[in-house]
Amino acid sequence: MADILEKPQQITFDVTDRCQLRCVTCSKWKTVASDVISKELSTDDWKKVLSDLRNWLGEGFWFCFSGGEPFLRQDIFELAEYAHSLGIHVASMSNAFSIQHLYEKIIDSPIESLNISLNAINNPIIHDESRGREGSYEKSLDAILTLKKLRDEKHSNLGINIATIVFPENVEEVIPLVEFVTKNKINGIMFQLLDDKESFHGYNYQKGCNTVGYKMPKELRVKYSNMAKRMIEVVDRLIEMKRAGHSIYNSYEQLEAMKIFFNNPDDILKEIKCDVGSTNYAIDPYGDVRLCFNMHPVGNIKENSPEEIWTGEKAIKCRQMTKTCKMYCRMLNCNFKHNFANFNKSFFHKLKNKAVKILTGKF
Ligand SMILES: C[S@@+](CC[C@H](N)C(=O)[O-])C[C@H]1O[C@@H](n2cnc3c(N)ncnc32)[C@H](O)[C@@H]1O
Ligand code: SF4
Ligand code: SF4
pTM score, two decimals? Predict the structure, then answer.
């Protein structure tokens, strides 16, 4: 029997490839602003996509502004307002490097969930070296703590989350990061395994990768192997902490998958299937749509509607390729359901704040 094609559940707008950091894990920052600014979708283009998506999907999808650094787009708040006016719940990622002047605006905006990247808590050098710019640790930390303080003072609905990549140098930071989240009443934390740097590329220069016949680079395999033993212990501790109520967004399924992966990365290809072809819909800064961020686009939003692209020939072919794909980026967060926790957290937070506002008479 043929599979029934569901509608996508996770929509990402990579609104720009531009970025001010120089992360060693990512090459989006190599994008030259003057090469791309005139090619990026306009505010009206994005608004049209938002309203097409809303008409097609209703309200029941997870939505996130990402990039590059989304706050480099001057119209990000206008887009968030527009999405909100359509009933879409808005999340955003940020490296927090230049949002200090935007704190109040973020709090007053309809963004429900802000995921700030932070790769260490005890040792700032680990974070700064991974991000390629001194001072980025300080800025991420300031954003997390100041936004949390402002959010609480203003009884705003903003969910503040931490997004952490796990790599050999920061394994010992993982548990302290969770403790930091709990101690400071941050909404939650989401861990993501370091993936091949080639997967995180600017779309202006690289439309897609050759995923067929992919071989993990030796250097990356060595990194995984060096951290494997300790990571299995750390993940066991994460599972215990999650059971005890610490706000770790990774699902138990994903945490167990991490253990399988660190025992033998190749086992994960049999144990976890990659679902992005039937769940994900990512639009790049130039309007190209991908189901898998590594594969070539399946259409462009300026030429066809989101639904036509989803059901079109190219999407069908891409979906088939995802089913036989042998890449390890299936371990990334976009292939696991926990991302929805962001929305739920924010939703419960909103209920709590609504109660506070009623009790204090502040509306
Ligand atoms: C591409 S960034 C875009 C948003 C924003 N610029 C930021 O860094 O938060 C999205 C997330 O991917 C993570 N990331 C970057 N390179 C990665 C890699 N090689 N493997 C896994 N995650 C990576 C970043 O740390 C960030 O949390
Ligand atoms: S991970 Fe984010 S902050 Fe780092 S270079 Fe890539 S887009 Fe920029
Ligand atoms: S594992 Fe999934 S996300 Fe990675 S390239 Fe294959 S289909 Fe795409």
Answer: 0.93
